[in-house]
Each structure stands twice: as C-alpha cells, then as structure tokens.
Write a structure and sequence with these properties.
The protein is about 45% helix and about 15% strand. By secondary structure, it is of the alpha+beta class. The protein folds into 4 domains: about 110 residues, no CATH class; about 70 residues; about 70 residues, no CATH class; about 90 residues, no CATH class. Strands 11-10-9-8-12 form a 5-stranded antiparallel sheet. Bound molecules: zinc ion. Zinc ion binds next to loops.
C-alpha cells in the first residue's frame, strides 16, 4: 500500500494483528487518528516500509476480520461523533467490537463498511435498529394483538383498532428508517391502542349478557362452512351485517344454525309457559322435538321454520303460547312407539289394521273383503291436525283398495308384511299363532 487513511490506521492499530510486527506498531503509533501519507512511509524504518508497502493490504484485511458488529445502537442525541473518522453531528452510532482484544469503536453508519463485514451495511443497521426498538418498546407485539372476545366487536371499533395498529407498525418502520428516531409517534399510538382496547373491553362487559348480541362462535362457524353449501351462500350478507353491528335483528335469528346460537333459542322454547299445548324436548343426541302435552305424541320439527314463525315474539322476549299454527311445521315422528301410540289414540282407531314404516304403508279395514292401502306419510300429514283416521278415509277417494285374500298371500310371501306393526286384528286377515 502507498498510504493508509485515518480509518485504516485506526483499524490496524486497535487489532491484535499489528502486535505481530513490533516495529510497525511503534511506527504507526505516531499516526494514531491521523493516517499515514506517502512521504511518511518513505521516512519509515526499513521493516515498517516493507510491511506497509508489501503486506499492508493483507495486514489490514486480517485486522478487519477481528471485528464484529454488536447490534448495539445509540440514537438518543443528534450530535454524536464517529470514533473512526471523527465526523460530527451524527444522529446515531453503532458499536463495533474487536473480538480478540475487546477494543471498541462507536461509528456512524457509513463507517461500518470499513470493517469489511460480509452482510450489507443496511441489513446490519436495520437489524440493530430493530433490536433497539424491541428493547425500548417491548409491548409492541402485544399492542398489535387482537384479543379474542366471546362476542363480536362491531366493525367501527375493530377497524379503529386495526387502523391505529397500522400506524404503530408504520411508526416502527419510521424508527428504523430514521435510524432510531421518532419513537414519540409509537408512544402516541400506544396510548391510542390502549384506549381502544379499553373501549372494547367496556363494550364486552356491557353487552355480553344481551340476548341477541352475536357470539364469536357464530362467525367462526360461518368461516368453517363449506363454500359450496347453499347455507354458506345464503347467509353471507347476514354475517357481514352481524360483524358490522354485533347484534342480531329478529329476522336474522332463524337462518343461523350454529349450535350455541340455536341452543340459546331452543332454551326460550323449552321454557315456554306450562299452559301451552306443546312441550319442546331434547333427545340424548340433542335433537329437538315437540310433544303434545295431553297425548304425549312426539312430532319432528323444522327448527328453522319454528324460529322464523315466532321470530318477533322470541326476539322481543314477550310471553307467548304455541298454538295450532305450529301444526304447519311439525310432522308426527315416525318411530314405531310413537306411531303405535298415535294410531291407538286417534278417532276410528279400530279401523287401522297395521302400518309399515319402511314401505310407507298404512292398512285400514274397508269392509268384509277389502283393506285400504294408504300412503303413511300423506295420511299422517292430514291426521296430525284431525286426529282421525275416519275423516281421512272418507275424504280420500283415491285410496287403493286391496283384496284381503291377496293381502293374505303377501303376508305368506313377504317379510315386510309379516313384520308389520299390527294395531287391530281385522276379520278376514290371517295372523300367525303368536
Ligand atoms: Zn466515521
């Protein structure tokens, strides 16, 4: 090398490498903080002259390898001075440390590259600044968190929170971009975020016991619904509105089939006053049924239709009675026990011979030689309001008549006929010994 600038001289002088060359150490010591010019080298002793001109580059390189970037940053003032080049009025300094002898340099960002680190200077600086930020602002990640609440927080609140969180993120970027300045913005947004979170907490406390506030599970349930289902497509708009507002409207109660939401509505029906003709009951698998109080007949019910029918009453929490309009949306439950009980108690029961659920058939005595074969489902659908087999038989002119002889042949040959549920034995029909 023909000359060594001030920075190079300092890097070599603070290294272990230079101690291998005692003459050079003595010679260079005179130029600490100055740099060594061409003329200075020519007046040096022979060995130092040789070291610098022949091996200067290698010595500098070895010296550089002893230094490490520590990730420490100083940025609280605007008048720092670089210890490598003496430049003044720097806004931030970075600590470089010699790993072999612990000598340290606080340097400006442009002098970092003098140490020949493999990583780009901007990367080194950014990591160091980010670490400084994390140390000075440890609450950062917690502030960016959106806590899960049991009820849906209206969009007005949530979007304010998200917007302020974005500003905080922006603040961190500015901190890094400005090399460790503008922490004030982050502190301002910190208190804003804390205030909004407090508002959210107050909202939760105030609304959590409201009957028709939207529980978070409803939204989670909706997110998990298969996109292809009709339900998912049909309730998209309602869900969007619920997120906006956080509260159900009366006509939005019934389309949501999330189980906790349904449970809440079911409970309202189950607690209806005792004067009702019908009870609402749950089976072991949590399916809801309706049961008539007097005869204990069980009906299947379409819950969505039920909730739609009584939406306003349920919503306003007024007391009401379930009456005959319920018949429109219930069907007699087709369990064998229930059908047996129902048929035995209906008007004209003695005409009913038997029924087969799997074949959807009901056999009713017509006269000496014939049976009627009725469609079980259709018959039940009429009978649920009339409670009478007679009125159905009389009104149903198209009922299929069936010769008892032929019926007896079927009983012999068909398993389903043999295993039918018999309500009343009829004259002219063969029955087994049992
Ligand atoms: Zn410098």
């Amino acid at each position: 090398m023909e000359r060594l600038n001030r920075k190079e001289t300092n890097i070599i002088l603070h290294s272990e490498e230079v101690s291998k060359y005692p003459e050079l150490l003595i010679f260079m010591g005179q130029f600490r903080d100055k740099g060594i010019k061409k003329n200075d080298i020519s007046s040096a002793d022979e060995k130092s002259k040789e070291y610098i001109s022949e091996f200067g580059g290698a010595i500098l390189n070895n010296a550089r390898h002893e230094y490490n970037f520590t990730n420490e940053v100083k940025s609280d003032r605007d008048d720092y001075q670089c210890q490598l080049c003496n430049q003044k009025n720097l806004k931030s300094l970075y600590l470089i440390e010699n790993m072999k002898n612990e000598s340290k340099f606080w340097v400006g960002s442009s002098c970092i590259k003098e140490f020949g680190f493999e990583k780009k200077t901007t990367d080194l600086v950014n990591v160091a600044l980010e670490m400084k930020f994390n140390k000075e602002f440890p609450q950062y990640n917690k502030l960016l968190n959106i806590e899960r609440h049991p009820i849906v927080i209206p969009n007005t609140l949530i979007s304010r929170l998200k917007k302020t969180q974005e500003l905080l993120k922006q603040g961190k970027k500015e901190f890094i971009k400005s090399k460790g300045k503008n922490m004030e913005n982050c502190l301002i947004n910190e208190s804003k975020i804390e205030n909004i979170k407090k508002e959210i907490q107050e909202y939760v406390e105030k609304n959590i016991n409201n009957d028709w506030v939207v529980n978070t599970e409803v939204i989670e349930w909706y997110e998990l619904l298969d996109k292809k289902t009709k339900l998912k497509r049909s309730i998209g708009k309602i869900i969007a509105r619920l997120k906006e507002d956080g509260h159900f409207k009366s006509d939005e109660l019934h389309p949501i089939t999330e189980k906790n939401h349904r449970f809440k509505i079911r409970e309202k029906f189950r607690r209806l006053s005792n004067s009702n003709e019908y009870n609402f009951i749950l089976d072991d698998s949590n399916n809801m049924y309706v049961r008539s109080k007097v005869k204990r007949i069980v009906f299947d019910i379409d819950e969505t239709a039920l909730y739609a029918l009584y939406a306003d009453k349920i919503y306003s929490n007024e007391k009401f009675e379930i009456e005959s309009e319920l018949l429109k949306i219930i069907e007699i439950n087709k369990s064998i026990d229930n059908l047996e009980k129902f048929f035995k108690e209906c008007k004209g029961a003695y005409h009913i011979e038997s029924f087969i659920v799997s074949d959807n058939k009901l056999f009713v005595d017509a006269d000496e030689n014939y049976l009627y074969e009725l469609d079980l489902k259709k018959t039940l659908s009429v009978m649920k309001s009339t409670n009478s087999i007679i009125s159905f038989r009389n009104s149903n002119k198209t009922s299929k008549k069936f010769k008892k002889d032929k019926f007896n042949d079927y009983v012999d040959s068909l398993n389903t006929y043999r295993s039918r549920i018999i309500i009343n034995k009829q004259k002219g029909i063969k029955y087994g010994k049992a």
